[in-house]
Description:
Blueprint: E1 4-14, E2 20-31, H1 37-68, E3 77-88, E4 92-102, E5 109-118, H2 127-130, H3 135-148, H4 156-168, E6 173-177, E7 180-185, E8 199-203
Parallel strand pairs: 2-3
Antiparallel strand pairs: 1-2, 3-4, 4-5, 6-7, 7-8
Helix pairs in contact: 3-4
Amino acid sequence: xxxxxxxxxxxxxxxxxxxxxxxxxxxxxxxxxxxxxxxxxxxxxxxxxxxxxxxxxxxxxxxxxxxxxxxxxxxxxxxxxxxxxxxxxxxxxxxxxxxxxxxxxxxxxxxxxxxxxxxxxxxxxxxxxxxxxxxxxxxxxxxxxxxxxxxxxxxxxxxxxxxxxxxxxxxxxxxxxxxxxxxxxxxxxxxxxxxxxxxxxxxxxxxxxxxxxxx
Length: 215
C-alpha cells in the first residue's frame, strides 16, 4: 500500500521592524512509496494548489492590513491547518484538510477541503464511483439531516432542492470515514449561518463489493 506523510509549512507577514503580523499555514504531502507515479503527480499538483492558496490569502491579508491597520494583538490573522488522512490503501487515498481562517472579522471562518484520490490513477473519486446516486440516496441524506439536527428549522422544499442540486451536479462534499461515507454541507448551507456550522451525515455503503463499490 502507498504511504503518505505530510508537513505543515508557514508563511508570515511582518512589519518594518520584523514583527509578525500574520501567519498562513499550508500542507505539503509526500509519497513515501514507489510504484505510484500517477498518485505522486497528483500530490505534487495538490501541493502547488495549497501553496498558491496560501500566497493568495497572505496577499489578501496584506491588503487588509494596509487598508485598516494592525489589530490590537489579541487576534492573530492568518490560517491554521489540521490534516487527517482517513484512508490510505491500494485503492483509496482520502485526505481531509481543516482550515481556520482569521481575517479580522467577528469570528474565524472554518472550512474542510477533501482530496479523495484513486491510489492507482491519481484521479479524484466521484461520489457516483462509490455509491449508487439516485433519489433513494437523496432521501437517506434528507432523513438523516432531520435526525441529526432536530433543533434546526429546515425549510423542506429548499432543503430537498439543495441536496438534489449538489448531488446531481457532483458538487457534494464527502469523504471516506471508517468504511463509511460522510457527506457534509459547508457553513451557510440550507440558509443557516456561522452558528450552525457545517452539517454532516454518515452513509453506510450498501453497495460495497458491487459494481461501482470499493472494498
